[in-house]
Design brief:
The chain is built from 24 helices and no strands. The chain is mainly α and 422 residues long. The protein has 2 domains: 3-140; 213-416, no CATH class.
Length: 422
Amino acid sequence: MTTKEFWKIYISKDGVIKNFDNIFDFFSKDLPAQFIDEYDVEEVILEVSGHNITAKNFENVLKFTELIQKQHPVLYKEYFQYFDDFLIDYHSFHHNRAEAERSFSNFLENPEQNYDQLLTALNKLLYYQHYEIVDKTVMNSYDSIKNSDKLIPGAEYDLAVLKYYLNLEYFYKISTDKTPDKKEFEKSMLPYDFKFNGNTLDLILKGIINPDEENEILNEKFIQNRHDYLLTLQSQFLVNMNRKKFGFVLSGRLWDKMIEFLEEQASYNKQKKRQMPDDFFNVKTDSYEEYLSDLSGDFLTDNRSEMIAVLWASVYIYDFLFSIGLIHQATYDSFKLTSKILKGKIIANFTSELWNSNFVHYWKKPDSISDAEFNEESKLFQKSLTLKRQDFKKTRKEINDVLKELGELSDYIIQGAEEDNY
């Protein structure tokens, strides 16, 4: 097939979906020089893959990806991030841990090629609790990212934070009395330029050593020095979540995102520093929705997995805050309502794409979520693997059986379908 013949087929009204076999045949051979010189090869291969992903023709995506890997390895190395991002999603969804990690190997070998995409892919592996590959990535990539002249100074900080949580859990677990060795821990973080000022580390370790400390004067501690108290509170949360089989690195990063929002909200509302816990942790639905929307990415990056991870994880944080008596029932109930409203909007707006964020159902069920809601929501995320992108009225017919069993959340999904904010 000549380049002109291929292009005529490629741009025909049938598009890349119906013409997949012809396109596959064209790429099965050496590409003509004319095609490489005169056409945007990147755009073609990404459109072929992208359109088939949208159409849920996953077998075609896997077949085409394998073809490019074997027949055009140089081309694949140049654009691997676009292919491998999907492979990580796909294999993680199907519980194929080995293939998911293997699909990340190009990022590991070429961390500077697309660092933002590396962080997005690494986060997905983190959400699926692939802690070993996260640790390996940090150790193998930190220096090259730090010394890269292609990236902005400080780009390596994201990796350093991951290592901080990984090392903190390691020292917590090897300490028989659950008292991490302060000096050894500090030493372990020096290669990652992670230094602790003042009594910061003491405040952090306080929560690790006494995760169940009776807090009879919570409000007073919080009001006196919110920053210091939050350091200890986070450590208590890490231990609490570790009992639910969450690694420190997962629960720590999700806590960071929630506190980032709450601090922004407090600053925006010009709240006094000496404020009550209920004031600080009281979430305004509109503000939280805007924050999550910003997290989801833009036309250049798709970061919806982080948006979903942060929203779904925030329930664990509020369960914890209420369990220790730091917030009152009204604040707790208000947040749970906010969570359901925003979950409803996200599920309604991204119904066909929920499958690649199914990691939230690999996590242990939050205390405040019923078994029925958790299980039926999981079914909806799994069902989305076969749902085509279409108007929610049509989609609703395909998921009606699940909606009937979802309880109160189904009302917020239907309500969320009436809005289009993401």
